[in-house]
Write a structure and sequence with these properties.
By secondary structure, the protein is of the alpha+beta class. The protein has two helices and ten strands, in the order αββββββαββββ.
Length: 158
């Protein structure tokens, strides 16, 4: 009986000490990707940027500066101030307009005639904070993927 009680106290002591260890971080870099692109009036593009919060706490996304790169073309600058709060492990979409170049419009149009889509790279930096009183931290992001035309919608790509 005494041995059983000693083992119980020993196990409880080990569990208490294990709970005193360093906690795992609750804030992780977000992921950004291009959910969609719509050509507006042959001079501008409306981007649907998906922001995925990989943190275990809600994050407010303040500023986004980045580049949209299509192979063989000049990168297009992306700048936005979404000021959106995304819950822990959640995602949301920010809508951003950019100036389209004739080369991008031609590449998008050419992608309609093939099955490979249009390769792109989205990269840059986003600032976010988990606490309104805290100074926002900057996180780098990079995402490579392809855009495919949306059937029946000649100016939309996903």
């Amino acid at each position: 009986m005494k041995s059983l009680r000693q083992q119980w106290f020993l196990m409880m002591g080990v569990m208490v000490l294990a709970g005193c260890g360093p906690s795992r971080p609750s804030v992780f870099p977000p992921q950004l990707s291009l959910d969609g692109l719509q050509v507006v009036a042959h001079e501008r593009c409306l981007l649907d940027l998906r922001i995925k919060n990989d943190s275990y706490t809600a994050m407010t996304f303040h500023r986004l500066e980045g580049l949209l790169q299509v192979p063989g073309q000049i990168p297009l600058r992306i700048s936005a101030a979404p000021e959106m709060e995304i819950p822990a492990l959640g995602a949301d979409v920010a809508h951003v307009q950019i100036q389209a170049t004739p080369e991008l419009l031609k590449a998008l149009d050419d992608s309609r005639h093939g099955s490979a889509g249009l390769a792109y790279r989205l990269s840059g930096q986003v600032s976010a904070s988990s606490d309104p009183a805290a100074t926002p931290a900057n996180y780098d992001f990079s995402h490579d993927d392809r855009l495919y035309p949306v059937p029946g919608e000649p100016q939309r790509y996903r």
